[in-house]
Amino acid sequence: MTARIIDGKDFSATVRTKVADHVTRLKADYDVTPGLAVIQVGTDPASQVYVRNKGRQTVEAGMNSCQHNLDADTSEADLLMLVEQLNRDPAVHGILVQLPLPVHLNESVVINAIAPEKDVDGFHISNVGLLATGQRSIIPCTPLGCLMLLREHHGALGGMNAVVVGRSNIVGKPMANLLLKDNCTITIAHSRTKDLEAVCRRADILVVAVGRPGMITGDYVREGATVIDVGINRIRHPDDPEKTKLAGDVHFASVAAKAGAITPVPGGVGPMTIACLLANTITACCRMNGLAEPEGLTV
Ligand code: NDP
In 10 A of CB 44, how many CB atoms? Predict the structure, then answer.
């Protein structure tokens, strides 16, 4: 079998267009413009690229974007004061603190200081608890993007066997909760799982988020399964040792030869993450203003 490519770049453009159309309607009908505030502490180059991209795409969608770049030695008290100020600002509907934070700052204290209704990353403990108990919440962007791709490809997911490899709080656990909410039968695998290959081969849907380039080969995949590769790893370029390239956690060639469908890296889950951040911002804005939420931008 040769897998169909699930094109996240293409689908994320559809999501961004939907967001932009709804922003236009909010402005015209209610004089409301969704606003996203992003806080970065320090000058980590990868974070700077992510923050810049988020700002650019927010503006392209017609929303207000404000970025707060704080010095690496900013105190926790000062950071919390800024979060509190943004919590109170009615023009700000989404607040995102770019992770990782410098080590002297306690990430969970900072994330849990964000007003849950503005927590567009979906990492606040209230949103985590709401998702885990199947209630309406703000959903973490990467798992939300994966679910949108799966629904787009399969329609209803009910009754399918889903295996999620990885149990992090930002990807693996929320992904499993979302698939459970969509009536899949879930297995969460991790570094202590016995006979991971056999566990993965039971999957109709295999979501991989381990942070190990090319770890999941064709031997882990059932014929015809759908494989979602969340991994983003920078590796040395095979043809030019001076260069690097991005690689997923899935060994693309051997898995694509067996799977029914697969997301590529780059161009799969990655572009969906920022699109879902925009989707979460407009969802938060609508909820805060008591307005109808756009269809298909959350679950
Ligand atoms: P974490 O390091 O937080 O978690 C990795 C998980 O993989 C852990 O649960 C770990 O198990 C498990 N794991 C590691 N090695 C193995 C192994 N050999 N066998 C089975 N399980 C293993 O990573 P994240 O969840 O934050 O990220 C995972 C990947 O997704 C990374 O490549 C990251 O860059 C990417 N990512 C991509 C995003 C996107 O926008 N597309 C967004 C976020 C992440 P244990 O718990 O037992 O240690």
Answer: 17
Tokens matching residue 298: 């959350």
Q: Which CATH architecture has domain 30-116?
A: 3-Layer(aba) Sandwich (3.40)
Q: Name which residue sits closest to atom 17 of ligand 1, judged by CA.
A: 191
Is 172 a pocket residue for ligand 1 (Cβ < 6 Å)?
yes
How far is 33 from 44, CA to CA, in rounded Å? 30
Ordered per-residue pLDDT tens for the chain, 299 residues: 799 999 999 999 999 999 999 999 999 999 999 999 999 999 999 899 999 999 999 999 999 999 999 999 999 999 999 999 999 999 999 999 999 999 999 999 999 999 999 999 999 999 999 999 999 999 999 999 999 999 999 999 999 999 999 999 999 999 999 999 999 999 999 999 999 999 999 999 999 999 999 999 999 999 999 999 999 999 999 899 899 999 999 999 999 999 999 999 999 999 999 999 999 999 999 999 999 999 999 98
Domain ranges of the chain: 30-116, 141-271
The residue whose C-alpha atom lies closest to atom 39 belonging to ligand 1 is 270
Pocket test for ligand 1, best of 232, 233, 251, 278 (most atoms within 8 A of CB): 232
CATH dotted code for 141-271? 3.40.50.720
Q: Is 54 a catalytic residue?
A: yes
214 in contact with ligand 1, CB cutoff 6 A: no
Q: How many CB atoms lie within 10 A of CB 186?
A: 18
